[in-house]
Write a structure and sequence with these properties.
This protein has 433 residues and is mainly alpha-helical. It is 79% helix and 0% strand.
Length: 433
């Protein structure tokens, strides 16, 4: 395919265990979106919220199959950025996809920052001023940027500590919730296929973290065996946790209360099972989850930006200026996250994030069809992945156009801008590898 790229991506590896890779996947998927988007999703799915989570997990499983096959065939720290080049070749298409994928990570980080602010406001009784909320938004993003500047090892330790505490708090909440739930009094609401599909699309952002596991494929002893196992193990563990938490919330709270408390549903549900102490505990775990997600996502975005520039997966104009070094990419990433977080409210940025990743995964999997003989993937499964992602994308996009047109417009502008920037840059700098 592209010998130089393959040579670069298969250099000497430092081993990563199957357990560590699985933990990486759990950490990438668990937490922030769950805390922030339950209320918005329940507005569409109602008491069938756990079913929407299950549908999102099924959709993610097909994309995981595609990414696992690609990661095993082309092990690289660049992950999906490498996959696009291997599938479409170096040029405008792969470069545009990688720029849009980079923007998708910025949008996701903005979602997690908005979730952090929502729960911070809850801890203070919901009385913080709009100016102070914006100041907190910028502060958490800048703080995470500073942590990233201190090095990858600190990022990893902070991430593992935060996710560990988050998982423990969610398990305790779920157990207490099921213990206190009145099963005999619970009644299912009306079933809406469209509502469940929209909710599954919204919740898809909760599963997008599986992609980070592919970035570790170059450090595995046997990526062909270990990568799929790690990714699917992480998906199963996270899905079980999501189903437990969402079921507990639906059993404990009436839908009107879930929708009213929107961005901080888990804190209010925890107050029902453990009083004020429970609300504080869940709010703190939410702050940890969101901060860890902002931290990891900015780290991933800046690494992807620097990696694609280094390997010339985008135009030389971008690689030699905007994304020349990881430090510069990290600075630009944090500025982009702040802009998205300040411009869009929590619900809208959540819709944008899920839409962006549904589109990215569909396009990357479509490119996978071009090289499926090299990866050994079954094209029928790849087509299923494309169809499911496209269906969820359309359901959510149509709903977003109706309910939050500014978000839909911003996403389309980001996509067009990605193509335009790459095209114009390559036009002015045609001589590049």
């Amino acid at each position: 395919m592209h010998p130089e790229l393959l040579k670069h991506s298969t250099k000497q590896r430092s081993n990563i265990s199957l357990f560590s890779a699985t933990a990486l996947g759990v950490g990438g998927m668990m937490g922030a979106g769950l805390y922030s988007l339950l209320g918005l999703a329940s507005f569409h799915a109602g008491s069938y919220l756990p079913l929407a989570f299950l549908l999102g997990a099924i959709a993610a499983s097909f994309s995981i199959y595609s990414y696992a096959k690609l990661g095993a065939a082309y092990p690289s720290s660049g992950g999906a950025a490498t996959f696009t080049v291997m599938s479409f070749g170096p040029g405008i298409i792969s470069g545009s996809i990688n720029i849009f994928q980079y923007i998708a990570y910025l949008i996701a980080a903005a979602l997690y920052a908005a979730g952090f602010v929502e729960y911070a406001n809850t801890l203070f009784g919901g009385d913080l001023s709009p100016f102070l909320l914006k100041a907190i938004t910028a502060s958490i993003i800048l703080s995470c940027t500073f942590i990233n500047l201190l090095g990858a090892s600190l990022v990893g330790r902070a991430e593992m500590l935060a996710i560990g505490l988050v998982v423990i708090s969610l398990l305790i909440f779920s157990a207490m919730g099921f213990e206190q739930a009145q099963f005999s009094a619970f009644r299912m609401g009306s079933l809406s296929i469209e509502g469940i599909a929209v909710a599954a699309g919204i919740l898809y952002i909760n599963f997008q973290g599986f992609g980070v596991v592919t970035n570790s494929s170059s450090a595995m002893k046997s990526p062909q065996r270990e990568l799929p196992l790690a990714m699917f193990s992480a998906l199963i563990l996270v899905t079980v946790a999501y189903l437990a938490v969402s079921s507990a919330v639906v059993l404990l709270m009436p839908l009107s209360a879930i929708e009213l408390n929107n961005g901080h549903v888990l804190a209010d549900a925890a107050q029902l099972v453990a009083g004020k102490l429970g609300q504080i505990a869940i709010s703190i775990s939410a702050l940890l989850a969101c901060a860890a997600a902002v931290n990891a996502t900015i780290f991933a975005a800046s690494n992807i930006a620097a990696d694609v520039a280094k390997k010339r997966m985008v135009s030389s104009a971008l690689g030699n200026s905007v994304l020349k070094t990881q430090m510069r990419a990290l600075t630009i990433s944090s500025i982009g996250v702040i802009i998205f977080a300040l411009l869009f409210p929590l619900a809208e940025i959540g819709q944008m994030a899920s839409l962006a990743f549904l589109l990215v995964y569909a396009v990357v999997t479509f490119g996978h069809l071009r090289v499926h003989q090299q990866t050994g993937a079954d094209p029928r499964i790849l087509w299923c992945a494309i169809a499911i992602n496209a269906a969820l994308f359309m359901a959510l996009f149509i709903n977003t156009v109706k309910t939050a047109p500014a978000s839909a417009i911003a996403l389309v502008v980001a996509l067009i801008a990605s193509i335009a920037i790459e095209s114009i840059s390559r036009y002015w700098h045609p001589r590049q590898r």
